[in-house]
Amino acid sequence: MPPREASGAVYDAGGALVLPGFVDAHTHPVFTAYRGSEFVRRCHGDSYLQIAREGGGIRSSMLGVREASEGHLASLTADRMRDFLALGTTTIEAKSGYGLTVEDELKSLRAIRTAAATTGLEVSPTLLGAHTVPPEYAGEPNRYVDLVIREMIPRATSEGLAEAVDVFVEESAFTTKQAQRIFEAARSAGLKIRVHADQLTTGGGAELAAEVGAISADHLEQTGDDGLKRLADAGVTAVLLPGAVFGLGLEGYPNAGRMLSAGCRLALATDFNPGSSPVQSMPFILMLAVMKMGMTPFEALWAATLGGALALGRENRVGTLEKGYQADFTLWDLPDLETLIFRGVEARPIAVFKKGELAVGRPKIAV
Fold it and tell me: Does the reported pTM lie above 0.90?
């Protein structure tokens, strides 16, 4: 049966490869400029942590977001959301995290809401106020944690701006004890919990995600066997972000086979952001997963669709082509999944459908 639009229009797939729309479960789309100079520094030997200590990294993006108007941020974010759709992604998770004041974090979340409404991309918004400690709280991280708990979370909840709260648990950001306080407040507010865990160092983020019942633990490049077992036992989806490993010029890709053997359920995501992973192409992420992480093409596709839906709590509506789910699907002028992955970043769908409606691509063909 050919796919039917809600209006009754009929489309001819023309023998194209049909896949579910990608579900990108980890993105940072609200920023003003890419940090290309940091990329060059890393290519010449400087580390991510060294650049961050010198005022680069997240803090560099913070300045742009604080200076920008909400309308400008919404316009930039909408352009990026249209790019996601054009690349075959029909649902994303979108984080704040570059404002780091109450008003600038709320401004970022409002920009996400406005951009989603104007593009048709389905978005799960996340408050990442605890991305790093801003300069005005240098040496006083607990005071900043208090601000996140007492003001950011209540304001974001009262305005209906976030579905989840995330914390960057890392040597250069927040401790597990600080994150646990934030997560207790998030749970009390009825928000889901996500964790940036074990990206650059082994800091107990995976174990914390299991303990607090997080919906996802993301990165996990440094997670040991015990952490993986705890994630599996707790049913926490492990969101793997090979684009960040690639963008930082590192070699420590997550070992997907080890994670699957531990019983973890996996999702793949881009980690699209202005500094370490400027990639929006899920086919490129699948290429990295197969080349660098030992995944089979089908494992990678599952992780980039239904796995991503699990990480967002949307597994009953997106991520697969089955009766009762949204008709989110893509058409590709390629013979098979293996060729799509081999084409990587160059692969683009010829048409994208969201909820059965043509969102991107060639005009409909009546048959």
Answer: yes
